[in-house]
Amino acid sequence: MSVFVLLLGFPGVGKLTIARELGSLISAKIVDNHWFNNPILRLLDEEGTAPLPKGIWEYTGRVRQAVLDAITAYSGPSANFIFTHAGVEGDERSARTYQQFVDAAGQRAAVFVPVRLLCAEEELARRVSSPARRDHLKTTDVETSRQRNQQAVVLDIPHEHALTLDVTFMSPFESAAAIRDHVKTRSA
Question: Which of these, 20, 24, 104, 143, has the minimum number of CB atoms within 10 Å of its CB?
Fold first, then answer.
């Protein structure tokens, strides 16, 4: 049986780092949200200082859909996948993105496991400020991180296999192990 794990969380929470740990634990391919975003974002302002053009995320959504369509059409029936997404509660685009993953899992008859990753504001600010993030077109703006954490909530769409995990004081391996254990109970 195939499993689709969707790691949801604000920038800096550790989605990709946890995905890498989890990928080795459940033998899954990782499809990071920057695979969808960066081909488009790299076409824009190299400094990353200009505001993003209105509608740019529709283009990244098309890239995401093409990748999901390829997975659905060509991946082996037992292949597992881990996806990352910085979904925000109440944001229509975040909900549409979430639905793209749900639909792809349904087309493959895969078990879909959404995992909300939460982190305390100060720790999230510390993590997001890492200079290495900029190399991958990831945000490093601490003030934006604080504002997002104070004003928004990580996407929380009810699902029978959902898990919410506070990773503030957990190592990536501990987080991945907790997710692996949850996935095992949902895919048994």
Answer: 143
Whether 22 and 176 have beta carbons less than 8 Å apart is answered as yes
What is the C-alpha to C-alpha distance for residues 159 and 168, in angstroms, rounded to an integer? 23
Pairing of strands 3-8, 80-85: parallel
Residue type for position 170: M
In order along its 188 residues, the chain shows pLDDT tens digits of: 899 999 999 988 999 999 999 999 999 999 998 888 888 887 886 665 677 788 888 999 999 999 999 999 999 999 999 999 989 999 999 999 999 999 999 999 999 999 999 998 888 877 776 677 666 656 766 677 667 777 889 999 999 999 999 999 999 999 999 999 999 999 87
CB 118, CB 154: distance < 8 Å: yes
Lookup result for tokens 């200079």: 131
Distance CA 15, CA 22 (A): 10
Q: How many helices (H) and strands (E) does the chain have?
A: 7, 5
39: Cβ contacts below 8 Å, ≥ 6 apart: 63
pTM of the complete model beyond 0.70: yes
Q: Which two tokens stand for residue 181?
A: 């254990």
E strand residue ranges, the chain: 3-8, 28-31, 80-85, 111-118, 163-166
